[in-house]
Amino acid sequence: MPVTQFELPDKYQYQNGLGSYHETEAVEGALPVAANNPQKAPYGLYNEKLSGTAFTAPRCENQQSWLYRVLPASAHSPFEPRETDSFNTNPGDHGRDRWHQIPNQLRWDPFDLDETVDWVHGLKLVAGAGDPTMKCGLGIFIYAAGKDMDAHQAFYSADGDFLIVPQHGALDVQTELGKLLVRPNEICIIPRGIRYRITLPEGPVRGFILELYQGHFHLPELGPIGSNGLANARDFQAPIAAFDEDTENEYTLLAKFGGHLFAAKQKHTPFDVVAWHGNYYPYKYDLGRFNTIGSISYDHPDPSIFTVLTAQSNHPGTAVADFVIFPPRWLVAEDTFRPPWYHRNTMSEFMGLIQGQYDAKTGGGFQPAGASLHNVMSAHGPDASTHEKASNAELKPMKVGEGSMAFMFESCLMVGVTEWGLKKCAKVQADYNAESWESLKPHFRRPTPAKLVNGTSNGVPGSIGDQGQVPHWTS
């Protein structure tokens, strides 16, 4: 079956479909019929609209949900700034630090687990581009935590949508709109502004996050592939309504706003939505359900064929962010170098490994919980040992990546690295280039006899090739 066999079984129910218009109620009759904003909502609930796009966005792009809750989200004290020593996730013009824009290929050893902090304080900004205050760009985070968030706490980001990629440990995510259990080999998207609390049912957790400062994620267009393939809409899961009822205890609401942390107090639980309907909601996806498509004749397709979700820029076909995976798959291409080819790309590529071994990096330096960054036009490709093996392998049908899952955050933006990502984390591999590519050897052999054309030299330093091929030549 094309699903992941998880050791930790799911305990929640879901609604299926990405981009679908869902409706759900935890108490029968709590959802108004037809009207969004009745004078009196059922059972004394409050009407509240949650908009993920401008009111006037085109209908095909408009994202919104109507919530019916015990008390509105606005019922809290003023926000006050919180600590910056352990939470500062904006190194741009409004932060203390700055982006390090460098052309070097970078690779990180596995990031450490941290059992001393909860989800909020386990967020570390590694790289990114743009500025959340301008709703432009993206941020790439590592998270590592060992503690549940406090039972009377909730968190949200006003800066963008969180695409969460667990690598170690499960996340029990209680959101305003319902509950999600998210395990390694699943992803979870929590849209901008939605409040949530994370607990850790299996202990310490670690993983990766792409925060999208502009727009939202969608399924990529399939073009000539047709109507099905890659990630299918039916396999995405959204929560059903589930609520708490507590108007006695004090709760702390934490907000990530402009990369900084703020806190407000309120005398009611944030998780009191009894019913909701709309198309703006958190959701998750099992990467094991991805329908991989590739060549069945020759040549290696572009890695865009492995795109799960995309967020397009204003230029169609050019993404602010693509989420791409490299799952187990069959390779059958004839007379073809099967791993990804050497290339330079106008896009930036941040890769991470969830489990197993990535088939283009078999030298051992790219490990689960580790990552790499190949920035705009930074040359990269298979390491020397992988190239040697693939160049001489018997080209029979073979399955690669068994038990493995690698992913890529790809962006048209030039991605900068934070001070934490470059130095403080102490995980950057100084020998990445030497290990991967400096040991590559030239295999070029001139044919005998060799006819040299188009000004090609005869191999003698300072010599001139065939002058007859250059009409404007003057001696």
Using brief descriptors, characterize the structure shown.
2 domains; mainly beta; about 475 residues; Jelly Rolls; six-stranded antiparallel beta sheet; 3 helices
Describe the structure.
This protein has 475 residues and is mostly beta strands. The chain has 2 domains: 14-104 and 111-287, Jelly Rolls (Sandwich), CATH 2.60.120; 292-430, Sandwich (Jelly Rolls). Helices cover 4% and strands 32% of the residues. The strands form 6 sheets. Strands 1-16-20-13-10-15-8-7-28 form a 9-stranded antiparallel sheet. Strands 6-25-24-27-22-21 form a 6-stranded antiparallel sheet, with no helix packed on it. Strands 2-19-4-3 form a 4-stranded antiparallel sheet, with no helix packed on it. Pfam families: HgmA_C, HgmA_N. GO terms for molecular function: homogentisate 1,2-dioxygenase activity; metal ion binding.
How would the blueprint of this fold be written?
Elements (H helix, E strand, L loop, with lengths): L13 E3 L5 E4 L20 E6 L12 E6 L10 E2 L24 E3 L14 E9 L4 E10 L7 E5 L3 E8 L2 E5 L2 E5 L3 E5 L5 E4 L5 E8 L23 E4 L11 E7 L2 E7 L6 E6 L4 E4 L20 E6 L6 E8 L2 E3 L16 E8 L15 E4 L9 H9 L5 E3 L4 E7 L4 E2 L1 H6 L7 H5 L39
Parallel strand pairs: 9-17
Antiparallel strand pairs: 1-16, 2-19, 3-4, 4-19, 5-18, 6-25, 7-8, 7-28, 8-15, 10-13, 10-15, 11-12, 11-14, 13-20, 16-20, 17-18, 21-22, 22-27, 23-26, 24-25, 24-27
Strand order of the largest sheet: 1-16-20-13-10-15-8-7-28
Share in β-strands: 25-35%
Find the structural class using helix and strand composition: mainly beta
> Distance between termini?
71 Å
Count the strands? 28
Our Rg estimate from Cα atoms comes to: 25 Å
Total number of helical segments? 3
What does the oligomeric state look like here? single chain
CATH architecture of the largest domain: Sandwich
Low-confidence stretches: none
**Rounded mean pLDDT score:** 92
Total number of distinct structural domains: 2
**Highest CATH level, the class of the largest domain:** Mainly Beta
CATH superfamily of the largest domain: Jelly Rolls
What would the principal axes of the Cα set say about the shape?
globular
Remind me, CATH topology of the largest domain? Answer: Jelly Rolls
Largest sheet: 9 strands, antiparallel
Binding site for Fe cation: 343, 349, 380
Enzyme class: oxidoreductase
Domain Homogentisate 1,2-dioxygenase N-terminal: 13-287
Binding site for homogentisate: 358, 380
